[in-house]
Write a structure and sequence with these properties.
Helix content is about 20%, strand content about 15%. It is built from five helices and eight strands; from the N terminus they run H-E-H-E-E-H-E-E-H-E-E-H-E. The chain has a two-stranded antiparallel ribbon. A two-stranded antiparallel sheet has the order 2-3. The N and C termini lie far apart (about 85 Å).
Length: about 250
């Protein structure tokens, strides 16, 4: 961990938080709560784009929730789907049939991250040392839930951990204490490695940001080429007469 990422000894008090950051945070959250103004709220500031994005194939997904257990195990050390930073919702509220009966919800590593903008302590930040991923430093998190309230997606992709009373979000396994592999945009992700049908994948190009469908891609492997069927005539050597009386 770089020196700039180490937890600060000085903590922001309740009075400092309310007086110093209240107005700016309130404005950001209000704008984020209105779908039509979510993008406008961050138009005045740009952020370096992430080098990694988690995409999925909802039609390929079985809804087995293996990725959720893998996520909570590698990050929290317990098999608790409610603590997973990726959520698989089976039997969506509309009760639609396959292939629309499974909803996959992943952190989008947004190009314009509202969660980063509204955080009063810098806990939710762009980690430039690790591929510009949007992540939460829980040592700096004061549990105000501003990042959760500002997330324009449903369900919110910043989640609340009631055990430690802090927010958390997908970090592409960059900081997963129980993951024995190198994570982050240049490494491996527990959910991707665990999925039995390869319905999750890490890509380096930012998906379309217009709606959630930009992250729902066709990840099915290509079908094998069909082999010719039926009887194959034997090859005849050039100039050789037919044995049945040919000249």
């Amino acid at each position: 961990m770089a020196d700039s990422e180490k937890p600060r000894d000085k903590r922001i008090g309740r009075r400092e938080f309310l007086v110093g950051g209240g107005a700016a945070v309130a404005a950001g959250v209000l704008a984020a709560s209105i779908p039509g103004t979510a993008d406008a709220a961050v138009s005045s500031k740009t952020y370096p784009t992430s080098r990694g994005y988690l995409v999925y194939d909802s039609r390929l997904c079985l809804g087995c929730q293996s990725c959720m257990f893998a996520c909570s195990l590698t990050h929290e050390g317990v098999a608790n789907p409610s603590l997973s930073r990726i959520q698989i919702i089976r039997d969506a509220p509309s009760f639609t049939k396959y292939p629309y009966d499974v909803v996959v919800s992943v952190c989008r590593q947004c190009v314009s991250p509202l969660c980063v903008q509204v955080c009063p302590t810098g806990a939710c930040h762009v980690d430039e040392a690790n591929g510009n991923i949007r992540r939460i430093d829980q040592d700096k998190c004061i549990g105000c839930k501003r990042c959760i309230q500002s997330c324009p997606h449903d369900p919110h992709r910043t989640i609340w951990n009631p055990v430690i009373k802090k927010s958390s979000k997908c970090d592409l396994c960059e900081s997963a204490p129980y993951w024995n592999e190198k994570g982050g945009p240049d490494g491996k992700q527990a959910c991707v490695e665990t999925c039995p049908v390869k319905a999750l994948k890490l890509v380096t190009k930012a998906p379309l940001q217009t709606d959630i469908n930009g992250y729902d891609l066709n990840l099915a492997p290509p079908l094998p080429k069909a082999k010719p069927q039926g009887f194959e005539l034997p090859k005849q050597e050039p100039g050789k007469a037919d044995e049945k009386g040919g000249n």
